[in-house]
Amino acid sequence: MKRAKNVKSLVFKIVNIVVVAGLGAFLVYYLLSGIEFADLKKSFLQAHIPSLLTGFTLWIIMDVTKTYRQNILVGSSDIRYGDMFLVTLVRDAFNMVLPARTGELSYIYVLKRKFKMPVEVGVSTLAIGLIFELIIVFCMIIIAIVIVGVNRFAVSSTTVIFIAAGLLAVS
């Protein structure tokens, strides 16, 4: 009985890996089929390396800080920092591929599936994390307005701040 369950579990894992790898290969093929190889090669060869390295470094720093925040919010000593970092990377990967930020749900799924955390913990920590991200974006808008200058355009800075606050409240 136990052997049959192990075989079933192994078959499920293999099918899961094949489906994910197949879907990934199809997605790469589909996305690259609309681009000429020469154009793709030219783009890669002409990429500005310092900008790529800066972007990659900022992306890693962002994920490290997101991981730290989510680790604090989850509050479980069962989840190591490295494991939470992988959860954050999975979440980012799905956010890049899936539309309308539905990739955020992968965070809840991974916490539930891999770490046996209740769905409520996943949903609540995700919601709080997204609220923190909205606050950060709102602060960045205000900083950008201050840097650009107050009342330099037809629309006053106060109006832009109120619009940003309204968008923050709506979201």
How would you portray this structure in words?
The chain is mainly α. It has two domains: 1-47; 49-144, no CATH class. Helices cover 81% and strands 0% of the residues. It contains seven helices and no strands. It has helices spanning 2-33, 37-45, 49-74, 81-97, 105-115, 119-148, 157-170. The longest helix is centred in the first third of the chain and has 32 residues, at 2-33. The radius of gyration is 21 Å and the shape is extended. The mean pLDDT is 85.
Q: What is shown here, in short?
A:
By secondary structure, the chain is mostly helical. The protein has seven helices and no strands.
Q: Please state the CA-atom Rg, rounded to the nearest Å.
A: 21 Å
Percent range for helical residues?
over 70%
Q: In percent terms, what proportion of residues is strand?
A: under 5%
**Helix-strand pattern:** HHHHHHH
Kindly, what is the distance between the CA atoms of the first and last residues, rounded to a whole number of angstroms? 51 Å
* Shape summary: extended
Mean pLDDT: 85
Helix/strand-derived class? mainly alpha
Q: How many strands? A: 0
Number of helices: 7
What's the structural domain tally?
2
Spans of at least 5 consecutive residues whose pLDDT stays below 50 are: none
- Largest β-sheet summary: none
